[in-house]
Amino acid sequence: MRKHALERSGLSSSGLSSLSSSSVGVVLTPEQLSMYDGRRGAIYIGILGRVYDVTTGARHYGPGGSYSFFAGRDASRAYVTGKFKDDLNDDVRDLEPSELSSLVDWRSFYQKHETYSYVGTVVGRLYDGEGVARPLLGMVEMRAAEFDAAMARKKKGEVDGSVPKVCSFRWHKDEGGRVSCAEGFVPRKVKEGGEGEKGREGAKVREVCRCLPASVAGREDEGVTGYDGCALDAASCKTGRKGTGGEKEEL
Hints:
five-stranded mixed β-sheet; 12 strands; elongated
């Protein structure tokens, strides 16, 4: 399909026959990519440094189309900021994790589309002149993945600070007790109960262990403390209780 797109655009006879190739497709300069804006036939768009042939979507991306401003360039930033005049570029360095996640989703949309096809890469902030990904792309994908994982955990109720998960507790008569949390969480002693809990006045305050997000590892608030002798970012802590069988510490 790329060969036909080149022929339709007429660019093979206007200086673009020198397009370099890599193991991951054609490598275009921004100037070369700008020639594929639909005015000569073929339409390419760039997203996170990857280039896709969207000629079959000419009514959207071609001249006069609702998204014609995406054609012939990598306008990654504008996909999430919505600024279709000022942000038609590939500068994603200061975007929020949620915005980076959205960008990765957009890239997947083009990659999986039934009629759009992958062409290669464009030289810029995300890929170099050999079609090799720059460090920035790795940062984008990492932060997007971290955001997606955090959202997935929150959806399952694992990160909701208002409903912390209960710690796992083990006790040995010689070693004492140990509290543990899943990866990404830390055990904290949390005071619960007291006046007003569940509408009960004068309810007894008790100290229990709860697994809180690791993002709070360095912070101790009123009623929330770490375990003595245990690193604040540790996922498992000794409770310090030892004794005979049957002796347990309320968590």
